[in-house]
Amino acid sequence: MSASRSTSKVCAGISPHGKSLHVLDEIAAGEVIIGLDGHVVATPDKYTVQIDEGRHLAPNGSIWAFANHSCLPNARIDFAQFALVALTAIRPGEDVTFNYLTTEMDMAAAFKCGCGAPGCAGMIAGFRHLSRSQKAALRPWLSDSLARAFELSVANEEDEAMADQERAAPRRDGGQARG
Ligand SMILES: [Zn+2]
To answer: How many helices (H) does the chain have, and how many strands (E)?
Structure first.
């Protein structure tokens, strides 16, 4: 979170949705676009990225914060490299996007998405608000924090399903009146 690792391939841009992270030079799939410089804060806002429960990265003026949301993004946040990394090749003139629902449990400022992607989540309110199948579809790109929360909720659901089954079909080796 100290040294700046931004390439010179992006700059602050303007999109119909406000500021954007604008691409100046061809970026290859898998390439680090910009490192996530900043400092950790406890309270999220419009420009922070959640790194764990109660821990959010504020950008300290770094332009990575201008990367807009898309439900079909061209980049993702790679927490191992602590950087925005390209998912696809990105051409000059395009904007870098990532899916906010892969990092934010609860959005500080929810909004209606107009990305037009098939399977667009519509209201972007946070990972917590997605259906089970929407969450499962995002699993490969989730932050460690959200991935842990998801696995836990799946495990809890399985426990509950097991308990329901046991209630519906009590085991026959117990509970019978004797004699
Ligand atoms: Zn969308």
So the answer is: 2, 12
